[in-house]
Design a protein that fits this description.
heterodimer; A: mainly beta; 11 strands; about 0% helix; B: about 120 residues
Amino acid sequence: DVLMTQTPVSLPVSLGGQVSISCRSSQSLVHSDGNTYLHWYLQKPGQSPQFLSYRVSNRFSGVPDRFSGSGSGTDFTLKISRVEPEDLGVYYCLQSTHFPPYTFGPGTKLELK
Amino acid sequence: EVKLLESGGGLVYPGGSMRLSCAASGFTFTDFYMNWIRQPAGKAPEWLGFIRNKANGYTTEYNPSVKGRFTISRDNSQNMLYLQMNTLRAEDTATYYCARSVYYGSYVFDYWGQGVMVTVSS
């Protein structure tokens, strides 16, 4: 299975600030079709995960442009600008290039300073 | 509006069985792959498996970690998804989610239910 790691484990932020979350995979996520299947989710406290972005940098419907994804190969980053209270929670990356199984990262908790 | 509502969780003894259900609404059920994903308290989600859509023959794929013990099925006449879990272990204790897949070159989970808790304990 592809092992996903995320840093940091916890990320204190001030409202209005900017943060970056790193996600790394144990092998390249470039698929034989040329696409990279790395996706991001946010799990707010007491809720189920919600879909943020797909294929590294494509935001899902309704996700604000304060969220931006980047990266390639094995290293990926989710950047959040102008952090708002509704952005707090645990962020997970997910790979679907090497399947089965799909594998999630361990999560990064975004919390207030 | 897409809605997914799981049911059937609770307490089960080790070695026992349990069937979870997921009621889907707000979309054409037969057009979509459907998944089961679980999440132990305080840990990351773990994908368990999916059942394909009508166009792909409703076939299934599983995480090797549960293959042979868990079975996913669907009743398309009722817009229902099921997860049959056998020979349950303490490590199967988790919140179980059903999730719809959307195709973006690969199938990823766009909508999740609110989850149902399963506790395996004597």
